[in-house]
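User: Predict the structure for this protein chain, please.
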Amino acid sequence: MWLLCTSLLAAVLATALPAQIANTSDFSAISDRRARVEAVRAACKQLAGRTDPAAIAQWDRILTEMNLSHDSELKGVVQGLRAMNRYDNASWINLVNMGYVYLGDSESARQFRSELARERPDSTWAVQAAIQQWEATHQPPNTTQAGFIAWGIARVEFLKWLHEKKPHSEAATSEYLNAALVYESRLPTDEALAVADLALRATASAGFLPFDPHFEVAELYLHHHARLGEVPGLLSEAVQKVERDNHDLLTSEQGAERANQQIAWAQLRADSDLAEYWLQKNDTQQAGIAARRAGADLARLTPAANAQHNQRVFYQTEEKRWSKLAERVGIEAALLFQPQQVDWAKVARIPLSDFQATDLTGRRWTLQDWKGKVVLVNMWATWCTPCRAELPYIQKLHEAFRGRLDRIVISIDVDSDAELARRLVREHGYTFPVLNSRRLADHINFENGVPQNRIVDAQGRLLVEPVEGTGDAWVGMVKALMDEVK
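Assistant: Here is the predicted structure, written as structure tokens:
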């Protein structure tokens, strides 16, 4: 992460800054603007040439403060950091990248990524730079699902080429496998099987993948009706891996419930895949046994009445998938879960603390700008296919409130490079405010990922239930809901 914790920063500031500011852990705590600017610049002089961990923590806060205060010396500070040429220091690389984001200097950022790619061609940053360059010049042919799928498959082909060009780069291999396993059912069988072999080798030899691929490989074999004999063993290993990962939590009073749920979800996936395996083996009796086990797994995972909306939606999706499987196997599949309507009047609300963030036009936003208004907060990323499909409806909702001062739509992009969002917004003509700020997304409860839509009431309180859905009907529903919220 670029941004380090406040407690660490407090300790660093106390030992490294001049005496007049040594007692503050946050530059924004200095109320006088001139004194705050002087404190920041004094800190820069203290840190000149340093990139040790303590210094990195301070540089991080300095860049953030200079960006928020529009300090005229920010460019010089970023150039000074850049001149250190510490290509062996990951934190330094992140700082320079962040500095260019704050400056809005996409050309210097591009040059820096090019230099980084030459200095460390197999690094994560070099791989990400290559991916961003490809994505900048390759857009989905249209905004339909088919258009995004075609773009995703083309992206897989590019990542395959990148992996082959950089055979010793773990980052290139990981990016290729992540994408290829998502689209494996649409790849030619020979290519899909090569992906499976690479995933299993990467796991066995290096273990650098961010996930265990045994489930994905087993499902790849099922999709392509190949190597079926290996499927039961892969599924068994996948479940055992989840059990091993949760072993310590099982012995913890606080973590046991969560661990048991994760194991149950893994068992549900394995039993469902085993039912598919037996169907392909033309053994309906064994398929029925596996499907019934999956139904029992699902029943154990039924969410509580007070469960979060996203948990209920996820469960309902799994329940429908199991129902289709049960129908194929030939067993009765009564619905195990009936969706519940959200009583928005009773949804809990959490007060937000203040924040500062700048949108793509340079306007600075704080919580005070939201007070007295009901706000729809949309969180997204350019690499997220469902997000892209959702944005036209965010625009429609924005237009529905045109001219009103008591209702606004705010979009938060979580890409590491604001230029990616700026380009997409410009190409599609979106006019809603877009704030490029992962920090603000985390502030508004980003734990459910993207896309995500939340409502903040006129008192600056976050409604804990996400507003799920998309399409014109969703626009009408959200508009009506926002008119009801006070």
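The longest helix spans residues 256-280.
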